[in-house]
């Protein structure tokens, strides 16, 4: 499978998931 | 009907759901408990409940079927949905939770009326009526889906199947209301999650490794490895990508999902739910797409055959797993359907009990009375939905194709701007609803442009413009509303 397909398949969705995780840790720091 | 392991595990799942209904029945004391779980959900239940309520049987049937047909091009709709989910959690959930508590609003129509001090009550009636109609048809379509699953998997007669599914869903929703619906969602969400993680891995191993899977697909249909399906030409590719991404815009106006945000114990707990929801949604979308994608390879190798691509998940379950495990896999599909239908059922009956019965006719009704009106509402809605699913199946499916778009286009801009723009007034709210609805109908039915571009995109944009323009052209909201907005949105107040 072409590299481009893999790149698009994995990167955007993973970035969204990582933003969700980072958001939680940033918010948590705000409370403490 | 053959008695087998699959049917046994499947039944265990159904009985488990009913037990949750009985337990939550005892926890439901007030009407607020019944409608919003008394705003005391935890992070996990909130996250799983919002996600499981959002993702219907489509996640395990429709999306794998789509990936089976177009291959990796199905990624765009997943990106659209995951983006919409993320933005909804980050930007809508916290403000909506705080604003609705400040206003003591239990439903979306409550929120609209109180937020804009709409004395005419027309905003409530209009939005509650829309919710009632769309969700009634949503419920009916969910029952049709549940019935077809039973029929396809166990050869049970469709009518019997719909009735069994309905008895279980209505049973626990009737008893435990929002708490039952949310707690069952927690287990149903986890069941869907693990089923969608296990399935593609099992198929890849069965087919002979990932390299072998991709080679098989490359030889049979190179289109499946590309990102744009069969579309050729700039316009077709743009419309394919933009149209699929635009599905994510629907999130801001879905009452059954927004209700989860309103029900969490504390606004600060929403950040953890956001994380859990994103992990859940991204991995399940991956799982669903890969199931269809590798299922295509299995079909090309002649290992499995499906008359309808949407049944690829069912066919693979029966092929790969022993009946006891296959029962769990089928339970996961049922979980996807039930976790959505129960929310529809509850939202519809809540519209009856809160928005019509209490607010318009019996302002001083007691808590017990309202809970029972809600419960009778669940039965009433279920009976009408069963009738619709038998007598009007075609019309049901027709109308449901409007529901996601219709709610997203009419309520979406309204919810977002009402939370972020102080100057917005009640006239803007009306303009947003009317413009969103009119654009969807015009675009789809009169102009027939749906094939060119999915109607939610123009409808959402025009809805936002209408709200801003009409609000600016009419007098600003009263001072008390502006001050209330400041109180509800000030970051320091929990």
- Total helix count of chain B? 19
* First-last Cα distance of chain A: 46 Å
Helix content of chain A: over 70%
What would you call the quaternary organization? Answer: heterodimer
Series of H and E elements of chain B: HHHHHHHHHHHHHHHHHHH
Low-confidence stretches of chain B at least 5 residues in length (pLDDT < 50)? none
What's the tally of helices of chain A? 1
Q: Largest interface: which pair?
A: A-B, 19 and 26 residues
Number of strands of chain A: 0
Between the first and last Cα atoms of chain B, what is the distance in angstroms? 55 Å
Main sheet overview of chain A: none
Commentary on this structure:
The complex is a heterodimer of chains A (32) and B (494). By secondary structure, chain A is an all-alpha fold. Chain A has one domain. Helices cover 91% and strands 0% of the residues of chain A. Chain A has one helix and no strands. Chain A has one helix spanning 3-31. Chain A starts with a helix and ends with a helix. By secondary structure, chain B is mainly α. Chain B has a single domain (5-398), classed as Sodium/glucose cotransporter (Up-down Bundle). In chain B, α3 packs across α12 (270-300), α6 (108-116) runs antiparallel to α7 and α7 (122-154) packs across α16. The longest helix of chain B is centred in the middle third of the chain and has 50 residues, at 158-207. Chain B is globular and about 70 Å long. The model of chain B has no long low-confidence stretch (mean pLDDT 91). Chains A and B meet through α1 of A and α5 and α12 of B.
């Amino acid at each position: 499978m072409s590299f481009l397909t893999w790149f698009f398949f994995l990167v955007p969705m993973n970035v969204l998931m990582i933003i969700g995780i980072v958001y939680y840790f940033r918010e948590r720091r705000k409370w403490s | 009907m053959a008695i087998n392991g699959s049917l046994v595990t499947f039944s265990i799942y159904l009985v488990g759901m009913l037990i949750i209904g009985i337990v939550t029945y005892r926890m439901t004391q007030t009407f607020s408990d019944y409608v919003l779980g008394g705003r005391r959900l935890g992070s996990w239940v909130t996250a799983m409940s919002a996600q499981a309520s959002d993702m219907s049987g489509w996640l395990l049937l429709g999306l794998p079927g789509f990936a089976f047909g177009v291959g990796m091009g199905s990624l765009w709709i997943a990106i659209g949905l995951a983006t919409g989910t993320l933005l909804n959690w980050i930007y809508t959930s916290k403000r909506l939770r705080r604003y609705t508590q400040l206003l003591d609003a239990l439903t979306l129509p409550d929120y609209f009326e109180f937020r804009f001090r709409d004395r005419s009550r027309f905003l409530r009636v209009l939005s509650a009526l829309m919710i009632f109609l769309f969700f009634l048809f949503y419920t009916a379509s969910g029952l049709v889906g549940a019935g077809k699953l039973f029929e396809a998997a166990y050869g049970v007669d469709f009518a019997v199947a719909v009735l069994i599914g309905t008895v279980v869903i209505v049973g626990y929703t009737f008893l435990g209301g929002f708490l039952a619906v949310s707690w069952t969602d927690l287990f149903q969400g986890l069941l869907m999650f693990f089923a969608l993680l296990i399935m593609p891995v099992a198929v890849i191993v069965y087919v002979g490794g990932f390299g072998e899977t991709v080679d098989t697909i490359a030889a049979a249909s190179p289109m499946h490895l590309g990102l744009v399906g069969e579309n050729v030409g700039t316009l077709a590719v743009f419309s394919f990508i933009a149209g699929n991404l635009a599905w994510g815009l629907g999130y801001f106006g879905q009452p059954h999902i927004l209700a989860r945000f309103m029900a969490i114990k504390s606004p600060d707990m929403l950040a953890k739910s956001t994380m859990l929801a994103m992990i859940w949604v991204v991995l399940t979308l991956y799982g669903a797409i890969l199931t269809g994608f590798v299922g295509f390879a299995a079909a090309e190798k002649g290992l499995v055959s499906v008359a309808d691509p949407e049944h690829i998940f069912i066919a693979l379950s029966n092929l790969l797993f022993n009946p006891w495990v296959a029962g769990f896999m089928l339970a996961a599909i049922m979980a996807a359907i039930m976790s959505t239908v129960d929310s529809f059922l509850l939202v519809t009956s809540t519209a009856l009990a809160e928005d019509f019965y209490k607010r318009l006719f019996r302002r001083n009704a007691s808590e017990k009375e309202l809970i029972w009106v809600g419960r009778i509402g669940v039965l009433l809605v279920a009976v009408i939905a069963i009738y619709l699913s038998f007598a009007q199946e075609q019309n049901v499916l027709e109308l449901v194709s409007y529901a996601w778009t219709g709610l997203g286009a009419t309520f979406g801009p309204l919810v977002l701007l009402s939370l972020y723009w102080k100057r917005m007034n009640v006239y803007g709210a009306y303009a947003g609803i009317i413009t969103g609805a009119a654009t969807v109908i015009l675009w789809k039915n009169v102009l027939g442009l749906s094939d060119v571009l999915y109607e939610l995109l123009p409808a959402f944009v025009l809805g936002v413009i209408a709200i801003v323009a009409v609000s600016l052209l009419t007098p600003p909201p009263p001072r008390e509303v502006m001050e209330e907005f400041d109180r509800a949105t000030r970051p320091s107040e929990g």
